[in-house]
Design brief:
Helix content: over 70%
Largest sheet: none
Radius of gyration: 45 Å
Number of strands: 0
Order of helices and strands: HHHHHHHHHHHHHHHHHH
């Protein structure tokens, strides 16, 4: 049965509402079973519902409701009062943060939602929420002004804006936000200077400009951020210089010339760490199919802009040996052979070179055997299909012969004899064809099995010495 589209559309559109209603009912049932009437009342109030203990009690009686104190009605009423307060407080806070007037309460009171649910009024709660939201609004404005490096005096402009917008100006909220923003402004300045390698004496220049503009100076915020980031500055320099040919003495001279604080320990730790990574990576790269080239790399280090450290030989050697062991592996040689790629066997240890050569050749032979195996399997599949089709044709022909011979009205003349001879000849030809095809199929399967065993042997024997 198919419903017309015009009937399905309302059902589809109403499905989310139906599901939402089911979830709401299930939650109500769960609340009933929990038996906390204060929570039940609070949820009703927060949803904008009017207080109706009798209705909720009747609803819960149909379920395994637990007792919750001696006076559930009083608990429900107290919870509902809190929920109703929360309902109006939240709307007031939202309006306050959106810089709406406090008189917007009237719009909520006349809204369809409130009228439909018959929500009891809650102007005190709304106004309390609005005051909080208004404070948050001006706190955010002050924070933004402070972070932009503007003086606290800009609050007078905000006060004028508040008057024009017919909303309260919360000077305390604005000032608190501005103080937070001003702290951010000086923290950002300290961070930016240190990140760029600017000496902290730049604070004096910044402070003079700030005072001239009437902006409060937060030396503590600047220096805390500068001192934290200058560590990263020297670490980053050490990391960069390790592979760019620059030395600490050069960086130190430049820093002293600019009056910048020098952190040699942090620089050298990062420098050493980067070089350890470099020589490890070099050994890793060379170890896969390349000879041990440490001496050559060390000789070329100045040209390449890198430095040789105490652990260079140890790190390179460990990485090269680990990677070389992965490269000089019979399985790897076998895979090289299968791909038809050349392999630098001479970089491998002498005792295993012959084994690797055999594995490489075995990999190539494996691919040849695999191609022959696939060809034999393909031929066997084709012959199997032919054999199947031939047997079906033979079956149809034999049924046709039997049917013709069993006909009661079958004439006995030269024409029927001629047809019998034709069918018999066709049957013999089919039998010969099936016999030949079956023989070829067995032969193809034997070759496929032979090639498969050869592939298994080639794969298995790569570990033979």
């Amino acid at each position: 049965m198919h419903l017309p589209t015009r009937l399905l559309t309302p059902l589809i559109l109403g499905l989310p509402l139906l599901l939402g209603g089911c979830q709401s009912t299930m939650q109500r049932i769960a609340d009933c079973k929990a038996g906390d009437w204060r929570v039940i009342g609070q949820k009703d109030g927060a949803a904008g519902e009017k207080a109706d203990y009798a209705e909720r009690k009747q609803f819960c009686e149909g379920y395994d409701s637990k007792a919750a104190g001696a006076d559930p009605a009083a608990a429900y009423t107290a919870g509902w009062a809190q929920g109703n307060w929360d309902f109006w407080f939240a709307r007031g806070a939202t309006d306050g943060r959106a810089a709406k007037t406090i008189s917007s309460y009237g719009q909520h009171l006349a809204s369809e939602e409130v009228r439909k649910k018959e929500t009891p009024p809650g102007q005190p709660a709304y106004e309390a929420g609005w005051m909080q939201g208004n404070t948050d609004y001006w706190n955010g404005i002050g924070k933004r002004k402070g972070a932009e490096g503007q003086p606290l005096g800009v609050k007078d402009e905000s006060r004028s804006q508040a008057e024009a917008m017919h909303i309260r100006f919360d000077e305390a909220g604005f000032t608190a936000g501005w103080q937070t923003g001003n702290h951010t402004f000086w923290s950002d300045a300290g961070f930016s200077d240190a990140r760029s390698g600017v000496p902290d004496r730049e604070l004096a220049v910044r402070a003079a400009k700030a005072k001239a503009a009437g902006v409060q100076v937060r030396e503590d915020a600047y220096r805390a951020a500068w001192n934290a980031e200058i560590v990263n500055y020297w670490k980053n320099l050490g990391t960069q210089d390790a592979t760019s040919g620059k030395e600490f003495t050069q960086r130190k001279a430049e820093a002293n010339q600019r009056g910048l604080k020098v952190l040699e320990t942090e620089y050298r730790q990062a420098w050493e760490k980067r070089l350890a990574e470099y020589w490890t990576q070099a050994g890793h790269e060379d170890g896969y199919g390349k000879p041990f080239m440490l001496d050559q790399r060390m000789a070329n280090a100045p040209r390449d802009g890198v430095f040789v450290i105490t652990r260079t030989r140890e790190l390179y050697t460990q990485a090269w040996q680990a990677r070389n062991a992965q490269y000089c592996n019979p399985d790897n040689a076998f895979d090289f052979g299968r791909r038809g790629e050349p392999m630098a066997i001479d970089v491998c240890a002498a005792p295993i070179q012959n084994q690797l050569k055999r594995a490489l050749v075995s990999g190539r032979d494996y691919e040849v055997a695999a191609a022959r195996y696939n060809e034999a399997v393909s031929r066997a599949d084709d012959l199997a299909h032919r054999l199947h089709d031939g047997r079906k044709r033979l079956d149809r022909l034999e049924r046709e012969i039997r049917s013709e011979q069993e006909r009661k009205d079958r004439p006995n003349n030269e024409e029927t004899a001629k047809q019998d001879r034709r069918r018999d000849r066709e049957r013999r030809d089919l039998l010969d064809y099936l016999s030949d095809t079956d023989q070829h199929l067995h032969e193809a399967n034997r070759w496929a099995d032979r090639h498969r065993r050869e592939m298994e042997r080639l794969r298995r024997d790569i570990y033979l010495n």
